[in-house]
Amino acid sequence: MLLKNALIAAESGTYEGDLRITGEVFSETGRGLLPVFGEEVIDLTGKIVLPGGVDVHTHFDLDVGIARATDDFYTGTVAAACGGTTTVVDHMAFGPKGCTIRHQAEAYHKLADGKAVVDYGFHGVLDHVDAAILNELEKLIDEGITSHKFYLTYAGKISDGEAFALMRKAGELGIILAVHPENDGVVNFLRAELSKSGKTAPIYHARSRPAECEAEAINRMILLAHMANDAPLYIVHLTNALGLGLIKAARLRGQENLFAETCPQYLLLDESKYLEPDGLKYVMSPPLREKSDNEALWKGLQNGDIETIGTDHCPFFYEKEKQLGKDDFTKAPNGAPGVEARMALMYSYGVAGGRITLPQMVQLCSTAPAKLFGLYPKKGVIKLQSDADFVVIDPQKRVALTQSLLHENCDYTPYEGLSLSGWPVMTALRGEIIAKDGEFLGEKGRGKFLKRGLPRLIW
Question: Which of 260, 383, 439, 443 lies most in the core, judged by the most C-beta atoms within 10 Å?
């Protein structure tokens, strides 16, 4: 395949030219490249070519006890492909209490193998930490699982002592830990207090999980990681200015192995959504915040204080699973769809909106996540011998975003009605076009499990 006359976007800059793909990799770049016999030529005049998106925060087929996420590894990765994402690293669900990490990895291989249409990996998940788990962390490196997540709330939360032990071991091994940071004690206190007072509408979901609960947990984990010899720590789904300020302060003190992710919903939506008649659609944790937090996070992206954009894609049908919370927000499953809209939203509201540059978008949505989670340089970059994963964006295409345009297995999108300036019109995985003009063209099961290497923490 030969891509001609494109604006090629890399994390370091943009240039106009041609890209040649041989087999599954990028093989040549330049200007005025001539086609060879049998080569498909695609003229991309006026279009932008970016590395395929890398979303390191999805929840496909997630069992949350009261419900199961409605996208499995087929429908979820079809949606990812149509939106320009070619690699996902999925956060596994908790297994039986006290199970090994490998137990869940084996379960997830069964869920994904033969279904995924983009390449994928798994984050380990921990609901307890003991000598056997710490030993398992090292063994899983050879199996390509080099990142693990723990929670500070929910039934599977771990204690501060367990987190500290985990951090020290992770630092020794060179792997990275992701944390869901919320103060469990305060969240449960407020949930019970609000429920007792009859305050059970969706807005009280936000009131029960204030920004301070998230920020306090972020700060606590930052200090534990510092005590654990600056162990690598990745803050998932950052939502607020207070937490961002604590991350920046830690870096100023010299804590370098500290990384932050945010998501489009925390950049574009605010807690007023909970006051709408369909406010249950936005019950996610952490919750949506104030408009001032949206702006603080955009500045964090501009300044390089936030490294990645994930989605925390975890869909449930509004007319079915979400209705479990119609009389009480605490009964609604937490989560929302978003894997398909990420690249279009970040281009439209970030790049076209003048908030970030095109190279910054590439860094946030492709290159940095690939580096942090052991996928670079095969993924997340347009580079010779890298996998020929790419997305083509038409900057002239105007779209009113609606659920009917999307392939996510969900009856709504939280971004309904947003106006987009630019849209993904082609996606390729390892040299094969798998989506074009909103139609999935790929093959079920073609996505490969990626044995990830150790994270690259300095770039």
Answer: 260
